[in-house]
Design a protein that fits this description.
The complex is a heterodimer of chains A (287) and B (568). The N and C termini of chain A lie far apart (75 Å). Chain A is built from ten helices and eleven strands. Chain A has 287 residues and is α/β, with parallel strands linked by helices. Chain A has one domain: Rossmann fold, CATH 3.40.50. In chain A, a hairpin with a 5-residue loop joins β5 and β6. Chain B has 568 residues and is an alpha/beta fold. Helix content of chain B is 37%, strand content 21%. In chain B, α17 links the parallel β20 and β21. In chain B, α3 crosses α6 and α4 crosses α6. The chains are: A alpha/beta (287), B alpha/beta (568). At the A-B interface, β2, α2, α4, α10 and β11 of A face α1, α5, β7, α7 and β9 of B.
């Protein structure tokens, strides 16, 4: 596929990597926003997934491992007219950056977060990730993962995230649609994308996911938080994909923050008189 | 020398020690005098032992004294601990019920503060009754106390405070010595500022529009200043979930074009270190205010130290240029915070403002003229000034002679801004090309060289033929200046260097000055002589020794003078 958002940067992914269809979906979703390239910022951390922004011709902030969210928040606070999308891996968002996930769902900034969830650390060669299934043996856990998996959707629903969805990387159209809706959602939006890792994860393959997932029915009520929570825990027998939970009534962080807004911070001046006023407050003059 | 009265208010947290101290220094300024106030407080919310020292002179004061001339003790239980640090001719006004002697020490004046407070309308006004007594000791008329109280309080509470202070002053009549009366002096308008407050104002004057932090003593009051005073200048503030988030948020805001800063202390700075390196790599200007306290680890949270000099200079993996400034007074805290904002953006480097608990919490009166509104020179480019390649792509990291690439911000029509923590090409995309790597390392190095040409020279004071040269950085400035005066009065001539900037280090200037003096001593609030080591590394010169203090308390001029005499 080639389009207006392509870059000529060489892709560093394995042949058959689940990141390729995710990239296609991201580009489709961004095109559907109707925004110009200069109005969009893709933010990522570090890892194979986090290289994605380099392959999309928009503004790019490729920061530190685990730290995409705070950088994205800083960008939104400085200039809320920018559309800010985080696209990074499960190790990045759920592991190293877990604290930022928790607190940014609490803040509810208008940021869409796409997590390439392949349940494995690919770039560092096959260690388990926070979402690896117990018993799965990685390069540092030869006798199998002991810790229970981090449940991203259940955690997000519990924290009050207003848009919680899961997709399947292989289904580009479906993923692009969820991504576009996540971007349109005003507030923090999480899309967990089940992504096969063809090199290191021989369990959760394209075939395995194809067998396990089912799309939520058209009459599913995404406003039902308890039902959404229940579904978010489905994994062993079958895995639901689609928008599990949606809540529109919560104002976003940028609306509530008294200082964030127009003009963007770079356009704000520092009038000498305002500085003098602050010093005058400290001046002792006898009443 | 004129008057030199050191007043100390002691009591538990929650007893109004800080309020009494604040009122006393305002009274000093109202009476036409000058003051230096420091606090010594414990890491707790109520109780404990806190003290607030206010030293009053006829000339501006920039250091404290260990011995109190007038002690106001709100907690009689603390008397045994207090008395050894009261001067021989001093007095201790101590809250004791009428008729109780309290102590055999003739310096102790038993004052029924609680009873006076109750008479004024509330038992919590004991601090104000005591302040009224001290005001009487200083010879400050009751009307003046009334006027100054009106600067602080309003309505019914103002009247109660006035009454408590008046009852205190009336009680004191005939019961206190007349030796500490302040001479008449003309009133001049002065600004009253703490070090952290001045630093926050300087950052705001420098165009800071974004601040984030996770509260940590002694940095928190900078965050307070930014969050309270910042909004009137368009600053947005956010309390981060941790220090890692704080600096990454600030760097995100900087990428989007805001002048941004974070505030922390040693432990929080340790968490920020990876992001400091990110700022170095993506060349995002950012300012870090690092208020030092004794370590390692949690150390002594509310006390002072200068143990993070070497840490600030080396923090961050990899090699990248940085600016590290070390203000030594409220005036410098203001000016250097502004300078940090300007230089950080001009050279696209992270800048650390290195301060400590002593300067952070020190309050003085200053000349309003020393806090001018300063210019803010934004360097963001747009339109035709944006460097592009043949395909029209913005080259965020365009190679230039001084290494600084014109910075555009996302949102600029027609371009995209690409930054990457990986090594990158001129257009910001990650690369593993070794030739590009070399060129980018050289580009960042050139920025450091350009930064070096604007290094603030050390401030040299004292005679060129002095017997001894004292060298300090940061908060020791005022203490060393007064120590020189004491030494000079005792026939020992001393010169001093104050370093306002420690990276890039003013190596040539320091080396040249060191060559002129036979004996050179660093004065540092750490055990290992980090400044002495830095001087050796940067100039190849060895200082004669180090006057070190690392108990968590600031130096005093007497102490430094005494230790110079031992060492010369």
């Amino acid at each position: 596929m080639s389009g207006i958002l392509d870059t000529d940067v060489e892709k560093a992914w394995c042949p058959g990597c689940g990141n390729f269809p995710i990239l296609d979906a991201v580009k489709k979703a961004l095109e559907r926003t109707g925004k110009a390239k200069h109005e969009i910022v893709l933010v990522s951390g570090i890892g194979q997934a986090a290289k994605l922004p380099h392959y999309v011709d928009v503004n790019v902030f490729n920061g530190l491992h685990g730290r995409a969210l705070p950088a994205a928040l800083g960008i939104r606070m400085a200039n809320p007219s920018l559309t800010v999308v985080v696209t990074s891996g499960d190790g990045d968002i759920y592991g190293e950056g877990g604290n930022h996930l928790v607190h940014n769902i609490r803040r509810n900034p208008d940021i869409a977060v796409f997590v390439h969830d392949n349940q494995v650390y690919g770039l560092t060669k096959g260690q388990p990730s926070p979402t690896s299934d117990p018993g799965w043996s990685g390069s540092l856990q030869r006798s199998g993962v002991i810790a229970g998996p981090f449940p991203p959707l259940a955690a997000a629903i519990a924290l009050g995230c207003g848009f919680v969805a899961r997709s399947l990387a292989a289904d580009v159209e479906f993923t692009a649609d969820l991504m576009a809706r996540a971007i349109a959602h005003k507030g923090f939006a999480l899309v967990d994308i089940l992504q096969p890792c063809v090199t290191f994860n021989k369990k959760n393959t394209y075939q395995w996911y194809g067998k396990m997932v089912y799309k939520l029915p058209a009459d599913y009520d995404a406003a039902d938080r308890v039902r959404a929570f229940e579904l978010s825990l489905e994994w062993e027998e079958r895995i639901p994909i689609g928008v599990l939970y949606r809540r529109e009534d919560r104002p976003c962080f940028e609306e509530l923050h008294p200082g964030v807004g127009d003009p963007p911070l770079y356009g704000r001046s520092t009038p000498a008189e305002a500085v003098r006023d602050l010093l005058r407050k400290r001046l002792i003059t006898l009443p | 020398m004129g008057i030199d009265v050191n007043i100390r208010v002691t009591g538990g947290a929650g007893q109004g020690v800080h309020t009494a101290g604040g009122l006393l220094y305002r009274l000093a300024v109202a009476a036409g005098h000058h003051f230096h106030a420091t606090q010594d407080y414990m890491s707790r919310i109520r109780g404990g032992r806190n003290s607030y020292s206010v030293r009053i002179r006829e000339i501006p004061v920039r250091a404290g004294r260990p011995q109190a001339d007038i002690e106001l003790s709100l907690d009689p239980g603390q008397l045994p601990r207090i008395l050894p640090s009261v001067s021989p001719a001093g007095i201790v006004v101590c809250d004791l019920p009428a008729g109780e002697a309290g102590s055999a020490d003739p310096r102790v004046i038993a004052a029924p503060l609680r009873e006076l407070a109750v008479a004024a309308g509330s038992p919590i006004l004991g601090n104000m009754a005591g302040t009224g007594i001290v005001a009487r000791v200083l010879g400050i008329p009751a009307e003046m106390v009334d006027r100054v109280l009106a600067l602080e309080f309003k309505g019914d509470f103002l009247e109660k405070n006035r009454k408590a202070a008046r009852l205190g002053a009336e009680w004191a009549e005939g019961r206190v010595p007349e030796a500490y009366r302040l001479p008449e002096a003309a009133f001049h308008p002065r600004v009253i500022l703490a070090g952290n407050e001045a630093l926050a104002l300087g950052a705001l004057a420098g165009g800071c529009k974004f601040a984030a932090g996770y509260p940590m003593t002694p940095g928190s009051s900078i965050l307070l200043g930014l969050s309270v005073d910042g909004p009137s200048l368009g600053l947005v503030f956010e309390q981060a979930e941790d220090e890692i988030a704080a600096l990454n948020m600030a760097i995100g805001a900087s990428y989007a074009g805001a002048r941004a800063m974070v505030v922390t202390s040693g432990g929080g700075f340790a968490l920020m270190v990876e992001a400091l390196s990110l700022s170095g790599m993506i060349e995002a200007p950012v300012v870090v205010a690092l208020a030092m306290r004794p370590g390692p680890a949690t150390g002594m949270p509310t006390r002072t130290g200068q143990e993070d000099l070497a840490f600030a200079l080396s923090a961050g993996h990899g090699e990248f240029p940085r600016l590290v400034l070390s203000p030594g007074s409220v005036e410098e805290a203001y000016a250097l915070a502004h300078h940090a904002m300007e230089m950080s953006e001009a050279h696209q480097v992270p800048c650390i403002l290195l301060t400590d608990q002593y300067l952070a919490d020190t309050v003085v009166d200053a000349d309003p003229g020393d806090f001018p509104a300063l210019s803010v020179n934004r360097r963001i480019v747009n339109g035709n000034d944006v460097p592009k390649d043949a395909k029209g792509r913005y080259l965020r990291y365009a190679f230039t002679a001084d290494g600084v690439s014109p910075m555009a911000v996302p949102g600029e029509p027609g371009i995209t801004v690409v930054v990457d923590s990986d090594e990158h090409t001129e257009d910001g995309h990650l690369t593993e090309d070794h030739a590009v790597r070399i060129a980018m390392v050289e580009k960042r190095t050139r920025k450091g060289e350009a930064l070096e040409t604007e290094t603030l020279p050390p401030l040299l004071a004292g005679p060129p033929d002095a017997e001894v040269l004292l060298i300090g950085f940061g908060s020791t400035k005022g203490v060393i200046a007064e120590a020189r005066e004491i030494l000079s009065a005792e026939g020992v001539s001393a010169a001093a260097i104050h370093l306002r900037q420690v990276a890039p280090f003013p190596a040539r200037a320091v080396s040249e000055i060191l060559g002129r003096y036979r004996t050179a001593l660093t004065v540092e609030n750490n055990r290992t002589g980090q400044l002495a080591r830095l001087i050796r590394a940067e100039t190849g010169r060895e200082v004669s020794g180090t006057i070190a203090r690392f108990d968590g308390l600031p130096f005093t001029p007497e102490e430094v003078a005494e230790r110079v005499k031992e060492r010369r």
